[in-house]
Write a structure and sequence with these properties.
This protein is an alpha/beta fold and 506 residues long. It has helices spanning 36-49, 67-75, 89-102, 109-125, 144-151, 155-162, 169-175, 184-191, 195-206, 213-229, 237-241, 256-265, 292-302, 318-325, 337-350, 404-421, 452-463, 480-490; strands spanning 17-21, 26-27, 55-57, 62-65, 80-85, 247-249, 272-277, 281-286, 308-311, 329-333, 356-359, 378-381, 390-391, 435-439, 441-443, 449-451, 466-474, 497-504. It has three domains: 13-87, Conserved hypothetical protein from pyrococcus furiosus pfu- 392566-001, ParB domain (Alpha-Beta Complex), CATH 3.90.1530.10; 90-192, no CATH class; 237-504, Rossmann fold, CATH 3.40.50.150. The strands form four sheets. The protein has an eight-stranded mixed sheet with strand order 6-17-18-14-12-9-10-11, sandwiched between helices. Helix 1 (36-49) packs across helix 2 (67-75), helix 5 (144-151) packs across helix 6 (155-162) and helix 10 (213-229) packs antiparallel against helix 12 (256-265).
């Protein structure tokens, strides 16, 4: 065997190499079982080349780094091994304190994360923490799995508990002793936000403006989005939609606008309706909610900026929220008071109160504007399906409660009122004030399809409107699973689209 390694690597005293008896070296840490093949391989290398890198010990001869090298020396029957001695007394003391604290259940999830991260830092200072990118066979280095095992939790849970340390320091200081810091999933979610968004969410919580983390998370993201935009409309139609086509697909992808809409649409009192049918009775289903980006497209593509927009069958008012979000003014009607009350609450929170007016009233007759004419810059509505397919309320004025004859009569009357209230478009100047209505189809046994598209076109034409555009949007039907067998047996396909009819008055 070659002679002992005696070279000093630096002038610092702690880096001086000394020869220490193998039997005097003690093991402090619960290191992994050494791999026999690696120990054997390393022993052969040492026999040929000598020990190229001394092991590291502390002032009390506890091994810090070099477990496989130590085992190789023992295998070779060597009595002494080159060592670098370092003083790690402070790190050991800190580590002991951290380990003791982690056993205390009163630590918040933020404090737990801070303790875990500090433990890792100490192991790094000791030179025994596996770093990212290192080969897993590096001699004696402690991995994340080892650290998780020491704490007594799974690898996945360990990583989750560590994650809240990614929350910026000032936010951690604000939240660490609050009830919100007790919920790990919330702190993990907060840690993934941008620092300014974290601060906004924390502010909403500690000031009491939001009583739940869920609400603060939504509100904080919305407010930060507005701040980023400086409250200006920067909607780029072509960049967002490309060239609009007659068949388009809209989704409920996460966005600030969709988040505001969800505050209404996800309300427990509004989220479910009963659907009646000729073939399978009545069942409770989630209300089909118009996607925010669909309403956004209709508002921004068809209606003028700062225009006065009406939705006289507003439901949960996705059209109204999209209108206000994009700088329009809004009038809404609904006979369901729960819809009105919840929508008012949300709109008051997010928009200027003088920009909207809601009526718990009949959107067919529009009695509140009986003496007015040509005041509207646009209408966007989504009337209930015909044939009593969806039951939104028990109010006798609600179109969902009328048979075909009464339904048709009311739609005819409504188009007369809309014709009176909508402004006149000008083809030469390319100024258009649209009436946009979303319609679908229903079935009536052996009578076949009742096409709302046709009936609405006829009603609009009788009132004096011109059919100006026609758009089809694809749907995800909430009752497709209920209907598929019926459709198959009767040899017709599931209708997974709605028609958007655009009318103007010249």
């Amino acid at each position: 065997m070659r002679s002992e390694y005696t070279m000093t690597t630096a002038t610092k005293p702690e880096n001086l190499v000394e020869s220490v008896a193998v039997n005097d070296i003690k093991i402090r840490f619960r290191l992994r079982i050494p791999k026999e093949e690696k120990v054997q391989e390393l022993a052969e290398s040492i026999k040929t080349l000598g020990l190229l890198n001394p092991i590291t010990i502390d002032n009390k001869n506890y091994l810090v780094c070099g477990y496989h090298r130590l085992q190789s020396y023992q295998l070779l029957g060597e009595t002494h091994i080159p060592c670098i001695r370092k003083d790690f007394s402070k790190q050991y003391a800190d580590l002991a304190e951290l380990d003791e604290n982690l056993k205390v259940s009163s630590l918040s999830k933020i404090e737990q994360a801070e303790h875990i991260v500090r433990r890792e830092e100490i192991y790094g200072e000791l030179g025994i923490r596996m770093k990212r990118g290192f080969n897993a066979d590096v001699d004696s280095l402690i991995t994340t799995s080892d650290l998780a095992r020491e704490v007594g939790i799974s690898n996945r849970m360990y990583r989750l508990r560590r994650q809240p340390n990614q929350i910026v320091q000032d936010v951690r200081d604000q939240l660490r002793h609050t009830k919100f810091a007790e919920v790990l999933v919330d702190m993990v979610k907060l840690s993934k936000q941008e620092p300014d968004t974290q601060r906004k969410i924390s502010e909403l919580l500690v000031t009491g403006k939001c009583s739940t983390f869920k609400r603060a998370f939504v509100e904080g993201n919305i407010q930060m989005m507005r701040k980023a935009k400086a409250y200006k409309i920067d909607f780029d139609m072509k960049a967002r939609w490309g060239t609009p086509h007659s068949i388009m697909r809209f989704t409920k992808a996460a966005s600030p606008l969709q988040s505001i809409c969800n505050l209404v649409s996800k309300d427990e009192d509004l989220e479910w309706i009963k659907r009646g049918g000729l073939h399978f009775g009545e069942t409770t289903i989630p209300v089909y909610g118009m996607a925010a980006d669909h309403a956004e497209f209709l508002v921004t593509y068809y209606t003028p900026e700062n225009g006065l927009i009406l939705d006289n069958f507003m439901g949960r008012s996705v059209n109204g929220i999209a209108s206000l979000f994009h700088g329009r003014r809004f009038i809404g009607y609904d006979v369901n008071k729960k819809n009105i009350d919840r929508t008012i609450e949300v709109m008051n929170e997010h928009f200027e109160q003088d920009k909207f007016q809601l009526f718990h009233s009949d959107g067919v007759t529009l009695e509140e504007f009986k003496g007015e004419s040509e005041i509207l810059d646009g209408v966007i509505n989504d009337p209930p399906y015909i044939l009593k397919n969806e039951k939104y309320s028990t109010d006798e004025r609600d179109l969902c409660n009328h048979d075909v004859e009464a339904y048709t009569e009311k739609i005819n009357y409504n188009f007369e009122q809309l014709y009176r209230l909508i402004k006149r478009s000008n083809f030469e100047k390319k100024v258009f004030y649209p009436v946009i209505t979303k319609v679908g189809t229903g079935r009536r046994g052996t009578e076949g399809i009742y096409d709302m598209d046709l009936e609405f076109q006829l009603a609009a034409k009788r009132a004096g409107f011109v059919l100006w555009d026609k758009l089809f949007n694809q749907l995800h039907s909430p009752w497709g699973a209920v209907n598929w067998e019926r459709n198959y047996m009767n040899k017709y396909v599931m209708k997974n689209y709605e028609t958007n009819l655009v009318f103007v008055k010249f």
